[in-house]
Structures
1.
Amino acid sequence: MTNVQPSGVSASLDREDLLAIYELMLLARSLDERQWVLNRQGKAPFVISCQGHEAAQVGSAYALKPGKDWALPYYRDLGVVLALGFTPTEVMMGLFARAADPNSGGRQMPAHYGHRKLNIISQSSPTGTQVPHAAGVGMAIKIRNEVAGKIVDDSVAWVSFGEGTSSQGEIHEAMNLAGTHKLPVIFVCENNGYAISVPQRQQMGVEDVADRAAGYGFPGVVVDGSDPVACFEATQAAVERARRGEGPTMIEFKCQRLTPHSSDDNDRTYRPADEIKAMKQQDPLITFAAHLKAEDILTDEKEAEIRERIKKQVNEATAAAESAASPDPSTLFDHIYADNLK
Ligand SMILES: Cc1ncc(C[n+]2csc(CCOP(=O)(O)OP(=O)(O)O)c2C)c(N)n1
Ligand SMILES: [Mg+2]
């Protein structure tokens, strides 16, 4: 296991990239906050937040090629799907279960992300089911190259899950398969220290989930999940390794969950108030903005301009999705019985 130290600089990221990453992080936060407002107004059924994970999500997804690589994100990954090309309106279509929702045409719960054009594979509600799917995608890529006798497809499968989920059996089976066959899979664990109300010390006997990768014969790295540049760098290294046919990597991002588990949870019953207060000091939006300002990449004027643009996007997305059509009842059985497959 290797520890990747926060770097703040990357040879592959220029000033425009760093500003784009910051803007995506802020867009994810703003859309997330709007979803909570809509939930508390009784308009949106369920919210599960990316707040506190934005740096890990955007930094990591920024190392992928949307539409070429395969992404199997989990429910918290709003920052990932935005970085891969989801529009704010598409996100809101999912929240309101509208017909135009790219995830499932309004059939899935919110935050079960999927997008055909972007190669984002829809996930199921039982946690972790996307992880063996990712190993299967990696196996398909490998077989395609074996049949051709050379690398004709150097795409990778990127899959994410929480630390609680990382203890489930199928995650270990998927990592074993990927390690055995050197599959091009990036296993991303967003470790926020809680599985709903259960703290990590009651979930597993190790401190670093990435330690487990050694048991399957591939590298495991631990990265500060509040530093988007370090998250990008670690993912880029894993992607390059996978593209070269050298096999999988596990990356563990140490994140903070700044909200309750979901809009149906009250974390004040199990998290001390001072723990939440301390976490907010480490908010990646604040620390990354401070870093960019210290480097003269972000100015107060630029920040105001970005915030204004995002406010407009979030307002427009909300209005478009609120007024959009629900799925037509005549499509109820689509995708359920063989003769209705689309
Ligand atoms: C197989 C299964 N067991 C339990 C649940 C209920 N559940 C949903 S999210 C969750 C916690 C997962 O925690 P973690 O993997 O750490 O991810 P986090 O939400 O903290 O990002 C649980 C227990 C579920 N959806 N599926
Ligand atoms: Mg967790």
Note: The pocket of magnesium ion (ligand 2) is lined by residues 162-164, 192, 194-195 (CB under 6 Å).
2.
Amino acid sequence: MDRLDALRPPAHTGDDRCRPCTVVNVAIVAIAALLLGRRRRGAGLAVAAVGLLVVWLRGYVVPFTPRFAPALVAASPVPDEWFGHERAPAPGPTEGLGDDVDGEELLGRLVEAGVLTADGEAVDLAPDFAAAWEAEMERLAALSTEALADATFDVARAADASVVDGTRREWIVLGDGSGDVDAQTWLSRPVAVAETAAATTLAGWLSDPTIRRAAAGPLRVFLSECPDCGTALVESSTMACCGGTTTPREEPDDVLACPDCDARLHTFE
Ligand SMILES: [Zn+2]
């Protein structure tokens, strides 16, 4: 098996096997085998056997499949869930507890309140705030996901909060009470811990809850460890796996992510 494993790119097989890539490739192999098999049965069978073996080993047989298969599948009328895609937006700097405030204004308010220190171009967390935020993250990380969802609901601008068990992780889903999926925000545990702790801790520095919620997301850029499991965060690209982006995008993002939780904490602009 060692030799087989060496042939397998881990990004496209095993747990990370991309179902859109696999489905599209198996379909292409089947069509090629059928066309050939109509003229020479042996050739058709050989193509089917070799093609399926390569898909199994490498994740795909057609070059550049990861670039087009997710888009192809997204464009198809078949529900995304059939392909193992969870309908969850990748948390970005402006997604989160519900408020969006102009970046310049937000930075000004946070520096003024003593949450951040600004020295020329360099901006950092003020040590007092950093310590308080960290302590609150530690407290929340110890909670069950249900209890964490309750704590997140308390600080978010949302009408309901629920826990959804995904294929790889649990999500805390904030909604507007209508059940409309387009109005939902999906937070992984690490993101929920970071943002809820930030919004709660900021109450000691800022009186305006709109600013507190708006600041919770952008503050994630200052994290160096996963707020949920403590693993050092790594800078990587969503290109690492074709299934890495939950919504098909044209360009991969550079992200700050926890390799253990497989969760994105920040997306670099
Ligand atoms: Zn983690």
Note: Residues 2-83 form one domain.
